[in-house]
Amino acid sequence: MSKILITCAITGSIHTPSMSPYLPVTADEITEHALGAAEAGAAILHLHARDPATGQPSAAPEHFMAFLPRIKQASDAVLNISTGGSAVMTLDDRLAAPKRAEPEMCSLNMGTMNFALYPAAERITEWKHDWEKPFLENSDDLVFKNTPRDMTRILTEMGVERGARFEFECYDVSHLYMLRHFADRGLVKPPFFIQFVFGVLGGIGPDPENLMHMKLIADKLFGDNYMFSVLAAGRHQTPLVTMSAAMGGHVRVGLEDSLMIARGQLAKTNAEQVVKIRRIVEDLGREVVDATEARAMLGLKG
Ligand SMILES: C[C@H](N)CC(=O)CC(=O)O
Ligand SMILES: [Zn+2]
Which residue ranges traverse the bilayer (predicted)? Predict the structure, then answer.
């Protein structure tokens, strides 16, 4: 089986500080977690920022620039900056930091969808910050917006104008057809790095049959011109990313996607999840690629 690419998503914009004392929030914490994940074998670091005082998801370029140069200086890992940000942010907000940082890679969510986080609120009894409870509870009426016009703008301003390549986040089969549409329009060039996303309430369910189906349709739409990776939320993370590795795919882990390292046990670092998945994929006979190989595989600007 081919070599395997590990992505680590360091902090995200879904989990909140009251869910885990180990969620990195400050620039120091995000830098430390990112370097630890890279050291453990993650070739790509997927990055969001937070307000260091409150832990609230932030689009502010200064919050990103407080850790990006430090990570870049200390590691050759590929930096992948989110353009998804958080569903409560405008597109201008979401693009501010990526346009400022001009990274090699950005994420791109391939559609508009419900993004329900409120079930998580029901498990929390003590809140660290006032913003957390309303943020989670109001997600029952939250829409993550990425219309074809929004996606065209992101592809143009980050891809065409700044040379970034993309982690295409596909939360459903329909998102694969949307990517095909943009490929037919020549706005994206192969090889396509497609992240199958499972377990977000509003997207496709975290079932192995859905992973098989997503791959079946991606094979049909993109032939050999794509690589797939899998991420899955919470307790679905290890089973589904392991399945991806067994199917010849790539994997994404990190505290953005799951706060756990085992049933009922919080992960203390992002690196712990990278070490765990690395052991599993190497036991499956896969060879983990480093950042240089990842750049060659994905055709990054370096
Ligand atoms: C489910 C993940 N939060 C997908 C994600 O990482 C989206 C993005 O940042 O653009
Ligand atoms: Zn993200």
Answer: none
Take residue 55 and report the two structure tokens written for it. Answer: 């832990």
Question: How many residues in total does the chain contain?
Answer: 302
Q: 3-state class of 66 per DSSP?
A: coil
Is the CB of 14 within 6 Å of ligand 1?
yes
pTM across the whole model: 0.98
Distance 296 CA to ligand 1 centre (A): 24
Please list, in sequence order, all residues whose beta carbon lies within 8 angstroms of the beta carbon of residue 281, skipping any fewer than 6 positions away: 4, 6, 242, 245, 251, 288
Residue 82: CB within 6 Å of ligand 1? yes
Give yes or no for residue 169 CB within 6 A of ligand 1: yes
Ligand 1 pocket member 32 (CB < 6 A)? no
User: Encoding tokens for residue 72?
Assistant: 């870049």
Judge whether 229 and 250 are in contact, CB under 8 Å: yes
Residue located nearest, by CA, to atom 10 of ligand 1: 84
Max CA-CA distance within the chain?
50
As a whole number of angstroms, the distance between CA 59 and CA 100 comes to: 11
Is there a cis peptide before residue 98, judged by omega within 30 degrees of 0? no
Please list the pLDDT of the chain residue by residue as tens digits (302 residues). Answer: 689 999 999 999 999 999 999 999 999 999 999 999 999 999 999 999 999 999 999 999 999 999 999 999 999 999 999 999 999 999 999 999 999 999 999 999 999 999 998 888 888 989 999 999 999 999 999 999 999 999 999 999 999 999 999 999 999 999 999 999 999 999 999 999 999 999 999 999 999 999 999 999 999 999 999 999 999 999 999 999 999 999 999 999 999 999 999 999 999 999 999 999 999 999 999 999 999 999 999 999 88
Q: So what's the ipTM on this one? A: 0.98
